[in-house]
Each structure stands twice: as structure tokens, then as C-alpha cells.
Amino acid sequence: MLMRTDPFREFDRITQQLFGSTPGTWSRPSAMPMDAYREGDAYVIAFDLPGVDPDAIDIDVERNMLTVKAERRPVTKSDDIQMELSERPLGVFSRQVVLADSLDTEHISADYDAGVLTLRVPIAERAKPRKISIGVGEGRKEISG
């Protein structure tokens, strides 16, 4: 039901690990890790975004393309603080996912808790299995939902 849109994303991730990561920009955002699974009558997509303010997260759906962008900004510090170590990535993160036609993109819900953005995409009614009853005598079929 879900498709990856960037076949080179994994290669980019490995390259960043080997040569050091640079902060993502709006024109070249960094990848964000995600999980996707089916739970009952919905698909669930969870994105790891620790330390990101919910106001800095942007979710768009155009046709069947879901785009999530987020920006982790540096924490403002006073002038008397000297940074000793900074490993947490800053900058812009983005992920695009192609959603199948059988998903209801009009009713996507989003929740952000403990640094995880969770989207629930319900399966469209037209895509759910239906029982087909058979009429007797007149040779017609009726669809019951």
C-alpha cells in the first residue's frame, strides 16, 4: 500500500554516516526515520522527530503523495555557555510517501507524542471487502455492503 519515492535515500543515509552529516536545508532536507504498518482498517506511519517543536512540522497531501517536513532548530543559549559536544542533528528533515488509491487521504489524522509523529490513514470504504449476494431465479447479482 505504501511506496518509497527515493531509491537513493538509503545510499544518502550511508554516505552521511561515513562522511559526517550536514544539516538539512529546505532545498536538500535530511531523511527522517519512519515505520509503516497496517493496524485494523488503517495504515499507521510513525516518524521519529525528537526535539522538534510541533509548530515546526508541516504535513501535506496532494493527490496520493504524502509529504512530511520538519525543522529542528538550535536551542537558544545564553552567551556564557560553551558547547562541548553537539551530536544531535539540526536542520530540515523531509519524507515523501506515495499512498495507494485504496487509502482515504481525506481523513488522515496526526498525533505528536514523545518525539514521534504518528499518522493514521484509513482504508477507503470502496477498498474494503464486500459480500456479494446472488439472486435466485432472475440471474442478477446484488452487492451488499
From TrEMBL:
<dbReference type="InterPro" id="IPR002068">
    <property type="entry name" value="A-crystallin/Hsp20_dom"/>
</dbReference>
<feature type="domain" description="SHSP">
    <location>
        <begin position="25"/>
        <end position="137"/>
    </location>
</feature>
<dbReference type="Pfam" id="PF00011">
    <property type="entry name" value="HSP20"/>
</dbReference>
<comment type="similarity">
    <text>Belongs to the small heat shock protein (HSP20) family.</text>
</comment>
<dbReference type="InterPro" id="IPR031107">
    <property type="entry name" value="Small_HSP"/>
</dbReference>
<protein>
    <submittedName>
        <fullName>Hsp20/alpha crystallin family protein</fullName>
    </submittedName>
</protein>
<dbReference type="InterPro" id="IPR008978">
    <property type="entry name" value="HSP20-like_chaperone"/>
</dbReference>
